[in-house]
Structure formats: structure tokens, C-alpha cells
Amino acid sequence: MSATMVPALVGLTGPEAVALGLESGVVVVSDIGDPADVSALVVDQEPKAGFDIEPGGRVRVTFGRSGPEDPVDPQPLTPADEAPGEVHPHDKPDALRLVDDREGEPA
Q1: Where is the sequence biased in composition, kind Basic and acidic residues (predicted)?
Q2: In the sheet where 58-63 sits, what is the strand order?
């Protein structure tokens, strides 16, 4: 039998990863249950994309957190109804100044 190339699953949801795995001839598995039932995004996979494995071989995926604290889709720190028209400085990182960055002192 010829080898099967492992598809790139990082960035896909569980159902998308399972579908691409089936299409590519590999079985997608996870430590947290059936990956087809997980809506979070794949953040890692083993073996990595591009490696050759036996047809029907297993590719283990790791999912990121789902929900408001998901690092892939962070929520603003300031709720819109709390300060309409206002933006929390942490929601605009380019507007932050470092503590050591004082006016009049060399950078």
C-alpha cells in the first residue's frame, strides 16, 4: 500500500477536520471525544501536515478553547452597553503606552 499524506487540520473546526480527514484517507481522533462534535478550532495535530502515514492512520488533534475566552476570537474587555462610544485601552493595543515610556526621557 502507498502512504497517505496528512492534511493540514489546524484552524479547522472539529467537523471540518473530520471531513477533510475522511477525504484524505486518515482518521481524525481527539482526547476529548468525537472530534465531529467539537465546534472549537484545531490548534495542533500529530502527525503534522505533510507527513506520510499508512492509509486509515490516525491523526490526533488538539482543540483550542471555545467560548468568549477563545484566544482565536477574543472578546472586547469593555462591554458595549457599559461605555457606548468608549473603547477600553486594552482593546486598542497600539494606543497603550509602556510605564517606562515617560515623556521627556529617551526611549
Answers
A1: 85-107
A2: 27-30, 58-63, 42-46
Number of domains making up the chain: 1
- The low-confidence residues of the chain, meaning pLDDT below 50, are 70-75
> What burial class does residue 20 get, using C-beta atoms within 10 Å of its C-beta: 0-12 exposed, 13-18 middle, 19+ buried?
middle
Does the predicted model carry a pTM greater than 0.85? no
Q: By three-state DSSP, how is residue 90 classified?
A: helix
Phi, psi for residue 27 in degrees, rounded to 5: -105, 125
Radius of gyration (C-alpha) of the chain in whole angstroms: 21
Structure-block grid coordinates of residue 54 = 499508512
Specify the DSSP class assigned to residue 62: E
Q: Are strands 58-63 and 27-30 parallel, antiparallel or unpaired?
A: parallel
In a domain, 105, yes or no: no
